[in-house]
Amino acid sequence: xxxxxxxVIFVAIVSFFFIHTWLSxxxxxxxxxxxxxxxxxxxxHLSNIHDYATTVLKHYEGTFMFKGPWLTNLDFLITIxxxxxxxxxxxxxDNYIKGPKFYxxxxxxxxxxxxxxxxxxxxxxxxxxSLFKANSFESSFVKTIHKKLESCLVPLLxxxxxxxxxxxxxxxxxxFTFDNICSIVLGFDPNxxxxxxxxxxxxxxxxxxxxxxxxxxxxxxxxxxxxxxLQKWLQIGQEKSxxxxxxxxxxxxxxxxxxxxxxxxxxxxxxxxDESNFNMLKALVMESGMETIEPKFxxxxxxxxxxxxxxxxxxSLSWFFWLVSTHPLVEAKILxxxxxxxITKEENWFITSRLEILNxxxxxxxxxxxxxxxxxxxxxxxxxxVKSDILPSGDHVNANTRILYSLYSMGRMxxxxxxxxxxxxxxxWISDKGSIIQVPSYKFIAFNAGPxxxxxxxxxxxxxxxxxxxxxxxxxxxVVEGHNVCPCLSVILHMKHGLKVKVTKRGxx
Length: 509
Ligand code: HEM
Fold this sequence. Notes:
Layout: H1 3-25, H2 39-44, H3 49-59, E1 63-66, E2 76-79, H4 82-91, E3 96-97, H5 99-105, H6 118-133, H7 135-163, E4 166-168, H8 169-186, H9 205-222, H10 225-234, H11 237-267, H12 280-288, H13 295-325, H14 328-341, H15 355-358, H16 362-374, E5 380-385, E6 389-390, E7 396-397, E8 402-406, H17 407-410, H18 414-417, H19 457-474, E9 475-479, E10 500-505
Parallel strand pairs: 2-8
Antiparallel strand pairs: 1-2, 3-5, 4-10, 5-8, 6-7, 9-10
Helix pairs in contact: 6-12, 7-8, 7-19, 8-13, 9-11, 10-11, 11-13, 13-16, 13-19, 14-16
This protein binds protoporphyrin IX containing FE.
């Protein structure tokens, strides 16, 4: 037989397998193709990946095995079954680690708390936990937010309302939270948020690098490992930009770390230092002891805290304000609650951070939880099994199996939230007695569950409430007609096209 004959037979056999696979799977939401695995389905639905994953997971009753292309090591088990998630995050916690593959993807984060496991993680968590518990942490966080609101965010929105200009609220929140978290972690305010509208908001190389860094992390989730490794080696494409971001971030952080060391040598900080002078770098040096602390420990933890404090809160604020401005009845109830609890005759705009007042705002709390349920800023989490195990759903897990649980899809499960799970309904969080209903963290998963749950949860609610009060009492936000609000492809659930709104002043009484 000549070579043409071989080619014809080869093509016929391959076609047979592809057609057979298609015919036997065409009613399934995802097809496992010979050679390519399920990657084609993933790529076809990349633009709405979270909703697609939700549909697929519902079809397979909460758990299924994603098959990557042959020999690419891209297989993982994906689940939204709350009992599986409880098992992975808490009950059999020691068996489910972040692991070396997670570390590779989030390489830039170094040995910061998000990236590490076992004893190293435990020591790191204990250190950070004691910083988060300190009164000086919460009070300086609140003071910083307060100052930024008063000096920049409120004046800027006032200016936007006077000029009638459309603004991108997401960009504004990113700048706001970036300035706040830099002040808290580094003791330095980059002033990326102006106090009035100018042609172009200031560019900050560090902040831009941060955004690109997230794109790079997402790319490493979906590209086969050999491909991004090759790109990294050749320094091309997405990997080139990931590498460049790392350098910018390192340069930026280096200056603060060196000055923290110099100042410590000069002034020898003590734990009784003036609270108004608080920053987390200094506090980490004090907590760990100058003799033992390494600059890399400070660099990695500073970066991890900056990432946690900027992105998750700014994304949540954007989704919250979008939901509220598109649900007038919810907005009216939030304002009613403010009127009952907050407004004093003397003040025409009100910024409060008094915890006893914030705690009274049950409906606002419910609305924030709803936004976090429907749009969790970290839309998915992944772990790796140390030893083989059987999940509560009966699914078998081998050692080194990668497991992904979708926080986004879990927020949209009828089994947890009922048939109206897609509705924005703060009432679902409020009991008949008018208090907040506590939902176990393996069901309301936005802050993760178990020993690795978020250390910043309390401070997040405080910050979001302070911002919600100051902005909703003073302004009304109208989303620009036709503006397309949808999630972008990233490890953080930002809005792809931002949040374009028109701002008008609100009379509060
Ligand atoms: C809306 C706001 C926030 C959300 C939804 C959120 C969510 C999460 C999630 C899902 C995790 C688990 C991440 C993982 O294991 O890969 C996490 C961990 C963590 N978060 Fe947050 N976070 C928020 C704000 C913050 C803030 C403001 C801080 C501090 C400034 C913070 C500090 C941390 C830390 C230190 C961890 C690591 C815990 C560990 O691995 O032991 N978070 N957060």
